[in-house]
């Protein structure tokens, strides 16, 4: 088969050629956009799920949907060691720049940019010698007395309110997209929730759409008790059999290529419905197949190569980030099983006191390799990671 025509795209956040099995989430976001357009009260939205299920792809799809409605949009990726002050400022600057050419009052845009500049300048960890003008291209003077108190909760609320006012002038909205939302520092999460809460009460046309690991709802609820009612939560999981088949069949048919049923059966067993794995196995199977229709025998030849690529790029790169103590902890988790495991069971497996393992566990959580599914239980953030670890030599 011609590798140039290979339609499959296993990549981080890369949109697959067929976005199958996500109609429900897309419809939900359509409702959010339409309700905001009609000045109806609406909650911001949060996507959660394991790595490789397509959260970032959906986030980008939602952004495209907002742009099609002429909304202003901005996106940022949270980091555990970085305040969201400057990333939010950059994202909102991008959103307002999208709206500025259509605004009838340029002075309103300049007024907001002055507030935005004041907000960004209050970042205590900004590199010395850096300027907001150089980073964002904001040449207007910084405003005084608005979003510049140094208290992120107060400043973020005022900034969001002013941004929403600019969007309301045009009868549209602003959507701020936050990837890896679970990595926002705790104090910043609290400030973000408070700002969203204020907006929801006044009906401002600005929403936050976040994506993160399965424990993100507990991170949000720990910061503000009302966060459970503040966001519309959507859990993104593996594809069912019909959607997984569609993700393979539709792109192939556009290239006049077919799959035999035994090939689809084998690919579903291998990928287990996880969108990233569907693309990874589909890509290699296409390359090794001699001709259409693709058969189960082609999948059997392709599977070891696909698994090898996943072992290096998807699993191995994450495993290499862990310290020796953290790797020992993960191997103990894998030895117990693939379901969420008790921290006490890991301690028993390693014949150690639970307290002595806390640094390794906390390090793995901060690196996004495991998460606490509920109190006392932990699980891998990457599907099939336990299986990968059990296949590796000690």
From TrEMBL:
Organism: Trebonia kvetii
InterPro entries: AAA_16 (IPR041664), Cyt_c-like_dom (IPR009056), P-loop_NTPase (IPR027417)
UniProt KW keywords: ATP-binding, Heme, Iron, Metal-binding, Nucleotide-binding
Top-level taxon: Bacteria
Cytochrome c domain mapped to chain residues: 168-334
A single MF term (Gene Ontology): electron transfer activity
Stated name of the protein: ATP-binding protein
Any Pfam family hit: AAA_16
Renumbered residue ranges of the record's region Disordered: 1-21
PROSITE patterns per record: CYTC (PS51007)
């Amino acid at each position: 088969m011609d590798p140039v025509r290979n339609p499959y795209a296993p990549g981080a956040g890369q949109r697959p050629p067929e976005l199958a099995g996500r109609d429900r989430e897309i419809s939900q976001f359509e409702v959010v956009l339409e309700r905001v357009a009609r000045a109806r009260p609406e909650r911001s939205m949060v996507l959660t799920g394991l790595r490789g299920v397509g959260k970032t792809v959906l986030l980008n799809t939602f952004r495209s949907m907002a742009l099609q409605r002429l909304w202003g949009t901005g996106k940022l990726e949270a980091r555990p060691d970085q305040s969201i002050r400057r990333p939010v400022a950059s994202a909102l600057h991008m959103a307002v720049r999208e709206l500025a050419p259509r605004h009838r009052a340029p002075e309103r845009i300049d007024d907001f940019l002055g507030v935005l500049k004041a907000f960004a300048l209050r970042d205590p960890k900004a590199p010395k010698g850096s300027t907001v003008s150089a980073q964002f291209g904001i040449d207007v003077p910084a405003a005084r007395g608005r979003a510049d108190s140094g208290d992120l909760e107060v400043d973020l609320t005022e900034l969001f309110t002013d941004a929403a006012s600019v969007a309301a002038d045009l009868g549209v909205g602003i959507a701020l997209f936050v990837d890896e939302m679970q990595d926002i520092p705790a104090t910043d999460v609290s400030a973000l929730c408070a700002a969203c809460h204020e907006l929801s009460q006044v009906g401002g046309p600005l929403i936050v759409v976040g994506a993160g690991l399965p424990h993100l709802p507990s991170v949000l609820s720990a910061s503000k008790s009302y966060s459970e009612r503040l966001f519309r939560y959507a859990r993104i999981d593996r594809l069912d059999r019909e959607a997984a088949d569609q993700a393979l069949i539709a792109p192939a048919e556009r290239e006049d290529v077919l799959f035999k049923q035994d090939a689809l059966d084998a690919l579903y067993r291998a990928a287990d419905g996880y969108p990233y794995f569907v693309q990874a196995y589909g890509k290699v199977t296409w390359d090794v197949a001699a001709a259409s229709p693709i058969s189960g025998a082609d999948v059997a030849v392709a599977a070891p190569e696909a698994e090898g690529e996943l072992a290096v790029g998807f699993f191995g790169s994450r495993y290499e980030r862990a310290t020796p103590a953290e790797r020992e902890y993960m191997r103990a988790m894998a030895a117990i099983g693939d379901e969420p495991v008790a921290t006490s069971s890991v301690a028993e497996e390693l014949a150690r006191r639970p307290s002595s393992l806390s640094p390794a566990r906390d390090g793995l959580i901060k690196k996004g390799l495991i998460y606490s599914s509920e109190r006392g239980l932990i699980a891998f953030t990457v599907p099939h990671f336990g299986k990968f670890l059990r296949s590796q030599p000690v």
